[in-house]
Design brief:
This protein is mostly beta strands. The protein has a single domain (19-129), classed as Lipocalin (Beta Barrel). The protein contains one helix and nine strands; from the N terminus they run E-H-E-E-E-E-E-E-E-E. It has one helix at residues 31-45, and strands at 19-20, 49-54, 59-65, 70-73, 78-83, 89-93, 102-110, 113-118, 121-129. Strands 2-3-4-5-6-7-8-9 form an eight-stranded antiparallel beta barrel. A hairpin with a 2-residue loop joins strand 8 (113-118) and strand 9 (121-129). The longest helix is centred in the N-terminal third of the chain and has 15 residues, at 31-45. The two termini are 27 Å apart. Residues 1-27 have low confidence and may be disordered.
């Protein structure tokens, strides 16, 4: 399996490097390789709780990734989550002010550390807890 890994020094406080587990757009994936990346990321998130910071406003942010694909956050929103064929974390809110909206974000992980990006903008960073 061909996985692109980025080492980003100083990305998160207390963490000197972070690895991106994402599709290598230059090499491309066959169906089996894409499925393996999806499975690995789904396993990491399934049943975990993200505890971190929403960087646009600096507020604490918590998301619970249900093993059944359900998603809840500390802002009284719920929805569903999945990993798409590109290895991106996707969510669709089913309650709250963003109900009906879906988006996919690049996910960067290293051990228990995680960051979410929209394009070049880092939106959240924190830890995954079980």
């Amino acid at each position: 399996m061909h996985i692109r890994a980025h080492w980003l020094a100083g990305l998160v406080l207390g963490c000197t490097a972070m690895v991106a587990v994402a599709q290598d757009k230059d090499a491309g994936y066959g169906a089996g390789q894409a499925s393996a990346v999806q499975a690995e990321l789904k396993e990491r998130l399934s049943g975990a709780t993200f505890i971190g910071t929403y960087l646009r406003d600096g507020s604490p942010y918590v998301m619970e990734f249900g093993a059944d694909g359900q998603l809840r956050d500390n802002r009284q929103r719920s929805g569903r989550w999945w990993i798409n064929e590109k290895g991106e974390y996707c969510r669709e809110w089913t309650s709250g002010p963003h109900s009906g909206s879906a988006s996919c974000l690049e996910i960067l992980v290293h051990g228990a550390r995680m960051a979410l990006y929209s394009g070049n903008e880092r939106l959240m960073d924190g830890e995954l807890k079980r």
